[in-house]
Design brief:
By secondary structure, the protein is of the alpha+beta class. It is 22% helix and 37% strand. The chain has three domains: 61-154, Trypsin-like serine proteases (Thrombin, subunit H, Beta Barrel), CATH 2.40.10; 163-276, Thrombin, subunit H, CATH 2.40.10.10; 282-375, Pdz3 Domain (Roll). A hairpin with a 2-residue loop joins strand 21 (355-362) and strand 22 (365-372).
């Protein structure tokens, strides 16, 4: 009896364990059946299952391909400008002639080339070196120091002509490409950057400012001057002209501060040079000394900014209307002469033949004259 009792107890325990295992298996199966199907790729979720999260995708490959295509299309129109600077004499003796170089680009099948004025300012025996290394003799048609532009005429067959764009359409952040010959040795070098800003003004330290410049962080070095700044459509939008490394008021060294002349300015000036042989600037027929607060305090002048008339052409526009030496010009037309608008820039806002109002201070009194501007 005792053995039979133990057998019944053992059989009952086995039945209880088996029932627990079967129940656990059935519960787990039901739970798994009710779970949603796992998604291997979240990006493939359909709108009915989950909202789509959109992201900005930029193809670096596409950008690089566009840049290389633009460079390939433009590079044949880019030239290296080489000249011989004139020798001279200083306190330490004579200076021998030296080779100077910059960049430029072809704008006409007839051989017209745009570069910077400062590239050819003291140069003679000018020649241009094409992208394939061949050299052509060139001459200066004319230049404009106030816009730092020059037009050359190269002799021979032109390999390509650059396409000029519209610099008025430029926006900060737009990708641009600078092509030129830094240091004169690394010909047709390519650098890439963006438009940092437009409408910049740089004081030349010579009584006028270069105005409406394009600022870019594309690397520009000595020798890049005169080379094209190109957009991703392959159009020239600027002429690389200078780079700022730092401020006279600070020891900090800046990088990525390059500046270019808008191509719309270059187009207007070069067209007139090609048609007339020169670019006409307006004139009042006077020479002036610019006044600033330091000079005004030194000589006890009645204004902080202006243009003191030091010499006058008796047959010029100013003399014919009654302006005299000793007068201080404080306004030309709509432009007051101040820290941001020097005399020359106010004057050059107009054209030869324009009739404008010129305001002067004479014996601490303000007088206005109506002047018809002459041609410089």
């Amino acid at each position: 009896m005792k053995a039979r009792y133990i057998l019944f107890v053992f059989a009952g325990l086995l039945l209880m364990i088996a029932g627990g295992v079967v129940g656990a298996w059935l519960g787990a199966s039901l739970a798994i059946a009710r779970m949603p199907t796992p998604i291997e790729n979240p990006a493939m979720v359909r709108p009915s299952e989950s909202p789509v999260v959109q992201s900005l995708v930029i193809s670096q490959t596409d950008i690089q391909t566009t840049i290389t295509q633009v460079v390939e299309r433009v590079k044949s129109s880019v030239v290296t400008v080489v000249g011989i600077s004139r020798g001279g004499f200083t306190f330490f003796g004579g200076i021998s002639e030296q080779e100077v170089s910059g960049s430029g680009f072809i704008i006409s099948e007839n051989g017209y080339v745009i570069t910077n004025h400062h590239v050819i300012e003291d140069a003679s025996e000018i020649r241009v070196i094409l992208a394939d290394g061949s050299e052509l003799p060139a001459t200066v048609v004319s230049s404009d120091i106030f816009a730092d532009l020059a037009v050359l005429k190269a002799e021979g067959k032109m390999p390509a002509v650059a396409t000029l764009g519209n610099s008025d359409l430029l926006k900060p952040g737009e990708t641009v490409i600078a092509i030129g010959s830094p240091l004169g040795d690394f010909r047709n070098s390519v650098t890439v950057g963006v438009i940092s800003a437009t409408g910049r003004s740089i004081d030349t330290g010579q009584g006028y400012s270069l105005e409406n410049l394009i600022q870019t962080d594309a690397a520009i070095n000595s020798g890049n001057s005169g080379g094209p700044l190109v957009n991703l459509a392959g159009e020239v939008v600027g002429i690389n002209t200078l780079v700022v490394r730092g401020s006279g008021y600070s020891n900090a060294i800046a990088e990525g501060l390059g500046f270019a002349i808008p191509v719309n300015t270059a187009r207007m000036i070069s067209q007139q040079i090609i048609q007339k042989g020169y670019f006409a600037r307006p004139t009042l027929g006077i020479q002036v000394q610019n006044i600033n607060p330091r000079i005004a305090a030194m000589y006890d002048l009645p204004v902080k900014y202006g243009a003191y008339v030091t010499r006058i052409d008796r047959a010029g526009p100013a003399a014919r209307t009654g302006i005299n030496t000793g007068d201080i010009i404080i306004r030309i037309g709509e432009y007051a002469i101040n820290e941001s608008t020097p005399y020359v820039n106010a004057l050059f806002a107009y054209s030869p033949g324009d009739e404008i109002i010129v305001e002067v201070v004479r014996d601490k009194q303000r007088i206005t004259f109506t002047v018809v501007l002459g041609e410089m």
